Amino acid sequence: MKVDKEMKLNVANGVMVKLDELVVKRNKWQVHYDRTNNTLYELLAGCLDSYYAIKGTKAEKVFLENIKDSLQARKLKVQEGTSVLNLIVRYVFDSDRRRIHGYARVLRVAVKEEIEVANFVEWVKQAGGLEEITSSKGATEATIKKRMTLEAKVEDVKDLLIEQLQHPLAIVPKTHLVSAVDTAEYTLLIGKMQVDGKTKVLSVVPDASSAMIQASIKKIAEALIAHVERVTKERLEKEADTAKLDVLNSAELLEAA
Asked: In what helix (H) or strand (E) does residue 143 lie, and over which residues does it extend?
């Protein structure tokens, strides 16, 4: 039993030593920033290696105690129930929670796809980078479905805007803020909502970038989706209430009979 305990300590401490080496490498990476992201991928591969080395072993519990104590000694908060992957990434990168969550999410996908440590860097590159993995491979079916719905609605909004050219809500007088060469492109307006729900258009927004236009179209699409969902929910609730009344009325008729 004593030997077993010593073995657990040795395994747990061995993984901690590897993580400390990764911390040193991470510090160097931050000082000499690698724009190719190769070093970042290698660091994450090291995290994956440590995860594979400890997860599911008899030494996992000892390791968890050690890494939590080390994080708390560095004045880092550790929430109850934090996964092993998140703890490892937090220990190595000592970064904000959003970044930690993103890195850990990539590693979870790698674990799910049974990616070997030696192939991890190339796997990330082939996938198109970390963000591509988190947005596609790491997304749930519900998230993917929601994204596809939004993309389809964005295209619908673009078509609606073209149709709306024949029936504009208003025509704003010519202004020196927008060049005549911009007539082929969309522009943005800024206005003030009134108590009665109407909007006073106050000015054209000059130099509206393509990104600003696309973001506005996306906002319209999101609002339309939300409206449809709200109307659908209200309709379903109304149908449910009607069904309940029908059941109650049927019960009353049975009692009367």
From this structure: helix 141-164
